[in-house]
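User: Quick sanity check before I run a bigger batch. Here is a single chain. Can you write out its predicted 3D structure?
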Amino acid sequence: MASLRELQRSFAAALRNPDVACAVLPPANLAVYRNNASITFRETLERTFPVVRRRVGDDYFRQLAARYRQAFPSRQGDLHWVGRDFALFLHEHLAGTDYAWLADLAQLEWLRTESAVAEELPPLGAEALTSIAPDDLEHLSFGLQPSLRFHRSSFPVFSVWRANQADIAPPVDQSLGAEAGMTLQRHGYPEIRELDGAVFAFASALHSGATLGAAVSAAGLDEHTLTQSLAMLFAEGLVSSISVKR
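Assistant: Done. Predicted structure follows.
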């Protein structure tokens, strides 16, 4: 007699592949479950990647969703995480084509999805720096909001995403080149923000655990740009803690 685990595996495999025999249900009954599972999977992807869907069209997106499901089947009950590997799938599926940039666009939309369910901590104000001794400033470590995600692309995916928030979105000129930015949750809503290259390098270095001095060096900031970058971090509520790290 088959174990419960074997029965579950049989059912899951048959849901994805009609050629696989199911030890739990007859084919006619299983077809209902198979159809519902396929539709639910695709609709979840459509909600997670609305701009990718819009750029490729409904028919092609359905094809991509079906191929993605075969390559990366859902392995947990929470549908929120269905699209976790979609950008990786597109990177492999579209490599070497004129549509390779869609993988970076999908990654941006996925990071926004991650930000949407992350914790939002009370922000610190810039006055928190007044208690830091001058000799300790370069050794400061910044705790940034848990919802922050940073993304750099060789393609203008931030411009594509921004343009496609309108009802009628013209194609974005790919010659605009590389763009970088972040996703974050603000008051329960996920946002996408493009950042200047130096600010991106500075903020992402802090996010990776670099001290203030190391982040300044990594981004090549002068005093004026550093002041502007710190002002942005605090003004946007991105700093949740600071500590001295030696």
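Residues 1-99 form one domain.

User: Great, the batch can go ahead then.
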